[in-house]
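Hi Y.,

Following your request, here is the sequence exactly as I used it, all 291 residues.
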Amino acid sequence: MTIRHLTIFIEVYQLQSITKAAQKLHIAQPSISLAIKELENYYGTKFFDRLGKKIYPTESGKQLYSYALHIISLYSEMETNIKQWDQIGTIHIGSSITIGTHLLPSLINSYRSRYPQLSTYVNVDNTAAIINGILDNTLDIALIEGQIKLNDIICKPFLDDPMEVIVPQGHPLCAYPSVSLTQVAAYTLLTREKNSVTRKLIDSHFAALQLNVKPIWESSSNQALIKAIEQDLGIAILPYKLIKKDLECAKVAQIPLDRPILRQLNIIHHRRKYITKNLQAFIDECLNFTY
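Below is the corresponding structure, written out as tokens. Let me know if you'd prefer a different format.
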């Protein structure tokens, strides 16, 4: 088994076609077929089911694909570092939308000021897309909201964000130094969209108290919720640190919960990802970040 075998395997897997892989790699089609057959013989298993003119990866093929991506990535990194060790490096950083909007610009600015010789590529997207980027190795590291439980991903907390009740100025709850979820449930509620980390966290705490809450407004945008609160359309429970700059500009008030709810922000990377000095420096930047 060689790097060439794995490179061919990856192309066949991604294109699901020996013909297309041969065209992309500029290798004769019989040589592609032979390389796959040699791999299957070496490991004693089938990596593709051949049905008519199409091929489909087997479970063994899916497992090998995950390993192959990281082996090829590590090999490519080694080639770059050994042959061009004095050139500027690049790390690929992913982020969920909320973190990318409110935290990541300050983090990247601080990181680049300390390591000006490095360059960064940033992708801000929904959490599912960012996790896929980590799994397929298009992202080196990422920042997301909430915990994930996947065997192939390491998840490390770097910041706790307290949830606070956001109300219009002059709202009756402003008379209290802190409020309970029971008090909150008595008012019209505006929430983040279903399946968002914030929504799941708040719903779980309402459910634990057997409080039946039916929001009248759901939004994927914190800013949209804050604007609705300004117009006295309802109240919301939102992560304070990630929206505090928006709150400073808004005609709303925030009130702590009497029993604090903390939303955890996490650094994630692939379990088999080789953590270079550059990546470790970014991790350290996140762990030491204050906001």
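The mean pLDDT is 88.

Thanks again,
Q.
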